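User:
I study polymers; will you set down one protein's sequence and backbone structure tokens?

Assistant:
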Amino acid sequence: MLAKGTSHHRGVGRGAVTHLLALLVGFALGSVVSNLGLGGSTGGRRSTSSPAHPDVPAAGRKDGAANATGSGTTAGGGGGRIAGAGAAPVPFFPGTYGEWLDSVMPPQLLPEYAPPGALPFNLTMSILRRTRPVVGNTERVRGFLRKLRGGECTVSLMLGGSVTAGHNGGGPEKAYPKLFTDYLNAKFPCAGDGGGAGEHVYKTTNAWNSMSHATSFSAISNLDRVDLVIVEFNVNDSFTPGKNVPHALEDKGLWGGTLGEWTVPGSLFVISKVHGALLFPFNKLRHSLKSRPCASVEYRSLWYSEMLLRKLLLIRKPDYPAIVTFNADYIGRIWAGNPWSDPKKARQSLFRSNHEPLKFWLSYLYDVPVFSVSLFHLALASKLGTDAQFNFNETRDGHNPYGTNVWHADACCHPKKEGHRVLALVLIYNFADELWRMDHDGSVGHEDRMEGDFTIDPLRPRLRDPVYMSPDEDGLYVRDSSDGVTIDLTDPNGEDAWRSKVVANEGWTWFADNKDKDKYGLIADDRAGGQHVAFRVTGQEHGVVEATFIVSYENFGIVLVWLDDKEENTRKDMCLTPLKEVSWSSGQLSGIWGERASVPQAELLGDRLRMGESRVLHMCLTPHEGKRNGEGNKFKLLGIRMY
């Protein structure tokens, strides 16, 4: 459902090794695309009458206001020229940030970006060129740009988490979605339905990451219109909880297995028995692996990201939207030393919780453009070492103006309000760049090209074969409708829609428990446990019942969950018995996990419902068990879905 108040704004086996190599190759390919896609020249013949850059005046102004942020460096050769044989030179972007800003930014918005102190650090054209690591197919983006030029009022859907919401950065009014929409309204006035002045608007959702959006896609599919989708989950997808891929219909192996434990190839133990000296190390390894939860967070992130991306590519609201992967930020604390992070643990991770390489890889395969802020910023922040990255020892290392603590408002991942202007500028730069290329790139527009976007065909849109999803999974979650029937407890205005489904309630309360009072859910919170709630549910086509809830690192507990035909609680004694924190045990939903974050998780119940079968779904909070972080014992239910 839509977030309240944000709808209208102005403005070790072969497979594992292959998988890892694929990720690294994808990262490298993304960098190559970055270097090639925004170079100082491009192919295609040009007419001698090609117009100049539509946003560059014949004699660009160079007043002090426009240059106050810094002259910067030139963009690939000092404002390159693009021309065909015998054609007059066609100007590209001006050579400095100040000149570029003066050429593309509406005058009324210049004070927001030009004066000293408007940005957290000096921004240059060289930096802006690094912000599109994957060019991708441009047809969808250009379709959006043609709407802007044609005076259509557009709807931008911003899929993101707390960064997109402006957490610790001034809130939604200061966050990049609002700033970018303000730019669209100032730069591309549009006409309303009655012929008068209209406005471009943006919308957000109450979901958090790729998993929650992919499994609760009705928050998107129920919208009347979507012209642009910005997918900003670089941070939140690193918090994709679970011990496996809950929605997988097959064993995903070592990287993404669904069996609840890691396994070691049998041949390894044959070797260990033959070579006695290796027996102890391999047995120790076997014990270690079997004691760890199954499936890497990277695999879960990729699986759910692919599901979401495939669903987005098929929506028509009313026609195909432009889709952009936007890597707006990274988790800073994992790059620090103690007490924020354990450097050894960080070195044992694949990407230090930065899922940008995964986004490059998947977006590259699906030909989706990627805009990135974290790509250039993390490199600049860390190039002088950890101390300088956080400016811990300025007398020895000097001050790093691009340091993570200069950018972030907290220990996690949230830009300061000045940082949101950089996020907006990156979006503006890349759309302005594409607008210019749309006018001067003669290599596009041929319907028979293999490089064309086959997903936009109005009659038979064609997706590539899935990379991580099986054909059955794709059929269920993407091709078929798995939205089903939803009891949505996150919508601030949705109480009337679900209240009649509750047939018993002892101690559960519906409210928003976060600081901004906008994240609703049905909550039980009592160390003694025993709180019970029951819902009337009806089976749908596939017989699946899914529960979505919050998991956190402290003050959260475990509920029992079961189906029967009675409305009263028939398991009161069990509801008062403490349980171990085992989230994949049948009949339990655990709100406890190890990461220092609170995020949604979706789990499928073991029991199935026949189509049309009506039963009662029970949940009860169990007592606080002593070996936990925090003294609280909360469980927050976000929704129930039958499909």
Q: What stands out?
A: The chain is about 30% helix and 15% strand.
